[in-house]
Specification:
Distance between the termini of chain A: 56 Å
Strand order of the largest sheet of chain A: 5-4-3-8-7-6
Largest interface: A-B, 49 and 50 residues
Number of helices of chain A: 10
Largest sheet of chain A: 6 strands, antiparallel
Oligomer: homodimer
Mean pLDDT of chain A: 88
Shape of chain A: globular
Structural class of chain A: alpha+beta
Helix content of chain A: 40-55%
CATH superfamily of the largest domain in chain A: GAF domain
Strand content of chain A: 15-25%
DNA sequence: TCTAGCTTCTCAAATGATGGGACGCGCGTC
DNA sequence: GACGCGCGTCCCATCATTTGAGAAGCTAGA
């Protein structure tokens, strides 16, 4: 059919459709009725209906009192199983909490997937303005501090592979928009030991990040501190970076990554 | 086919199979190879392969370095969207944290879905033995304190409907195993204002829970405190219950549920 | 180099999904 | 009160879609 099927070569129509339904419900602020789902996805009512019933049986969607559909809690279950393996998250939490206490700004923990970063945890300072990000959400690598932090310390080949896949979308006037600029930025990041996002993702938002290194000294994640530019000033960056470094060092230890003896400074100290 | 299709009347084979794949990967401790997946689900290699490729395209599964499959982070994204609507979770966290500090035992926040309870958050006291439950996991209502707490304060018709769906599986020697016993237990719960699970879910584990009530005074969730029976003794229950009541009152207020004036005691105080 | 075990790919067959359309319900309008 | 409308549910003949046998590749170990 005239489906907007992602270019991938393998296809199972039913699955693409089912996930389109989930996507739609996930995007929507409010639960949707059968008719709306069918219309949005250009499916016939009966088809959409069948899908929704099956999805409901699997608890991937659920119905509200008035019969509309929204995402089901089964997804929550799956989602938690999915990150379980990365028990990084649990172990990192106390460290992130301390980081937030120290900096009074929001901290994120992120993973790298393809050319995007995925936030797997977020801690906010008490009574802060709520930040935009949602746990589970993702952003392009090239305009986030966490992305740059991981990229900068990845082995050249793996970094190159990811760089190739970046589609330099411009999100603010400061977003890095060329491979050359990004390469230069990564050099800078390596030299100073931490990555900065200076309103490149969102106007008025400044972030700073460092990678979490495993026993092989490879980045497995990154931790960032983000806040409004007027609070996270250029002068404060080094001091925040220090807290960050302490934080990730703590995480690495907790994960059982041997601090690699004296080599801890190799990549990370200014 | 001779599929073990859940009895539901609507069927989309491809979806059932896809979810079976996700289930399998979710259950498995370690990533699985194509052959293992195909064998476990009695699918042909080529079929399993196609499914996995499509699931991978949707990032519902991902491949490890050695080519094996595991759940993908897209599920994590969906999962978080799914509970987003219940922002209860975020708001409840600080209160749960305080509760844990006060009781020094594990706290859970749970929702009711069909005849099961689903844990949507868990806070553990520092340096406690890690508990069994995983966020996102579920248990039958009849053998959990959170389940009984919600059930007890639900309007009779809705409670009855749920009661009808319970299949009294016996998990320990003390598990409530008949509708009558459960009904009696719910009465008791209502009278004392909190629910107790006395090793009914797991030997050696005692839990106590109270419901979180919305503006209509209906349970929308429940909070529990759980710990080893030798620490969570019968004598301590009333005092823990007190902390619990304070906790859920705080949550209700934070959620914007008007404490319903003087009526706060209607259901909840001993 | 050969074998074993795994993944990837192709294509004809037929099963299983599709969607046109009928039905029934509830609601607001005339 | 009758009518029209939008919505969800259900049925079933048709055919597009998925299926799976099998061949071809790949890798590692003997």
């Amino acid at each position: 059919m005239r489906d907007a099927a992602p270019q991938g070569t393998y296809k199972v129509q039913a699955l693409d459709r089912a996930f389109a339904v989930l996507d739609l419900l996930g995007e929507s602020e409010t639960p949707l009725g059968l008719a709306q789902v069918a219309a949005s996805l250009q499916l016939h009512k009966s088809t959409a209906h069948r899908f929704l019933m099956v999805l409901e049986r699997h608890r991937m969607v659920e119905r509200t009192a008035n019969g509309k559909f929204r995402l089901g809690l089964r997804l929550f279950d799956f989602g938690n199983r999915a990150i379980e393996q990365y028990d990084l998250r649990d172990r990192a939490q106390p460290h992130l909490r301390r980081l937030v206490a120290e900096t009074e700004e929001t901290a994120h923990l992120a993973l790298l997937e393809a050319a995007r970063v995925i936030y797997i945890d977020k801690i906010e300072p008490t009574r802060a303005v709520r930040m935009i990000t949602r746990i589970g959400a993702s952003n392009p690598v090239h305009c986030t501090s966490v992305g740059k932090a991981m990229l900068a310390f990845l082995p050249p080949e793996r970094a190159a592979e990811i760089l190739r896949r970046i589609r330099y979308e411009r999100l603010t006037t400061r977003t890095i928009a060329t491979p050359e600029a990004l390469r230069a930025e990564l050099d800078k990041t390596r030299r100073r030991g931490y990555a900065v996002d200076d309103e490149e993702l969102e106007e008025g938002l400044r972030c700073i990040a460092v990678p979490v290194l495993d026993a092989q000294r490879l980045p497995v994640a990154a931790v960032s501190v983000s806040g409004p530019s007027f609070r996270v000033t250029a002068q404060k960056l080094p001091s925040i970076a220090n807290y960050l470094l302490q934080c990730v060092r703590g995480i690495s230890v907790d994960m059982g990554y041997t601090p690699a003896g004296r080599a801890t400074r190799t990549a990370l100290s200014a």
